[in-house]
TrEMBL record:
Gene3D superfamilies, sorted: Dimeric alpha+beta barrel
Coiled coil: none
Native source organism of the sequence: Phanerochaete sordida
Domain YCII-related: 9-95
Domain of life: Eukaryota
Protein name according to UniProt: YCII domain-containing protein
Length: 118
């Protein structure tokens, strides 16, 4: 049986902007990063990702995280949304559910290769 093809998706997930949003992000961040590491290294879902930093803080020692972006691989747009909606930043009300967007994506250049699974 042939493997199902995987497609690339670009994800833009801004954080909510209420006063408690940074605290919610920091509360779940360690587990979010641990889960992302598994998705990247063992499951080959995340190809590239990280925090978005506010333009007024990116040059300071105290960068303010205001969202996330990433390039993922999934079998379909629906499968990609399932991945997003199971993320702790989604379930923990960090990412703004009304503003998060997922687009099918075609890289112009090769993406970084994932390290071999440990």
């Amino acid at each position: 049986m042939a493997e199902q093809p995987l497609y690339f998706f670009a994800v833009y997930a801004p954080d909510y902007t209420d006063a408690d949003a940074p605290a919610r992000r920091l509360a779940v961040r360690p587990q979010h990063l641990a889960n992302a590491k598994v998705q990247r290294e063992k499951l080959n879902i995340i190809r590239l990702g990280g925090a978005l930093i506010s333009p007024d803080s990116y040059q300071s020692d105290e960068r303010k995280m205001i969202g996330s972006m990433g390039v993922y691989q999934a079998a379909s747009l629906e499968a990609m949304w399932e991945i997003i909606k199971s993320d702790l930043y989604w379930t923990g009300n960090v990412w703004d559910k009304e503003k998060t967007v997922v687009f099918p994506y075609q890289p112009a250049f090769p993406l970084p290769t994932n390290p071999p699974a440990q």
